[in-house]
Amino acid sequence: MKKGNLRYLTELALLVAIELAMRATGLTSIPVGPLVMSFATVPIAVGAMLLGPMAGGVLGLVFGCTSLYDAITGRSLMTGAFFQVSPLHTVVLCVVTRVLMGVLAGLVFRAVRKLDRTDTICYFAGGLCTPLINTLLFMGYIVLVFYQTAYVQERVAVLGATGPLMFVILSVGVQGLVEAVVGLVVGGGIAKGVAHALGGNLGRQRGTQAA
C-alpha cells in the first residue's frame, strides 16, 4: 500500500511538473484574439485517465492557479477585466471550473471504460472530453456571471452576436475545435501509450486507488 501511494504521488508530481514546465516555456497556450487557445488540458486529461478523478482535480487546480495569476497580473486581458469586476467570481471562473474539469474528465473516462471492450476508445474519449468540458464550464460561467459586463458586451458587439449562445459559438469557434482535436489525438494517444507500456491496466489500478 505504501509503495502504491508513493508511486501514485510520484506520478502525480511528474504531471504537475510537466504542466508547470509547459506553462513556463509557453507551450500551454497560444493567444488568439481576446482568448487563449489552451493546450494545458493535455496533462490534465492524461492524469485524470491514468491516475483517476482526484488527480485530474489536482492538475486542474494547478492549471487554474496559473490562470488566476494571469487574471490578477493582467496578463490575460479578459480575466483581468473580470477580476476588476469581481475577484471572487474570477477565482471561481479560473480555478473552480478547472478543478471540476479534471474531476469530470476522470469520471467520464471511467464510465466509458466500463463499456469499452477494446480498452482504446475510452482513452480518446477522455482526451476529447477534457477540453470540451473546460470550454463548457469556462464559457458557461462567463455567460452566467459576466455577460452583462462592459468587456463582454464590447466583444458581443464586435462579434455581432445576437445572444449568449451565439457569443459562445463565435468566441470559441476554430479555437475550440483545435483544442478538441489536440485533446483527442495527443491526450488520448499519450494516455493509451503509457497505459499500454505499463501493462495496459494502469488507469484501472490508479482509478481504484484515487476513487
Features:
211 residues; mainly alpha; Arp2/3 complex 21 kDa subunit ARPC3; 9 helices; 82% helix; 4% strand
Provide the CATH architecture. Orthogonal Bundle
Main sheet: strand order = 1-2
Distance between the termini: 15 Å
- Structural class computed from helices and strand pairing: mainly alpha
Strand content: under 5%
Number of folding domains? 1
Please tell me about this protein's structure:
- The chain has 211 residues and is mostly helical.
- The protein has one domain: Arp2/3 complex 21 kDa subunit ARPC3 (Orthogonal Bundle).
- Helices cover 82% and strands 4% of the residues.
- The protein has a two-stranded antiparallel ribbon with strand order 1-2.
- A hairpin with a 2-residue loop joins β1 and β2.
- α1 packs parallel to α3 (53-73), α2 crosses α6 (121-146) and α4 crosses α5 (87-115).
- The radius of gyration is 17 Å and the shape is globular.
- The chain starts with a helix and ends with a helix.
- The model is unreliable at 207-211 (pLDDT under 50).
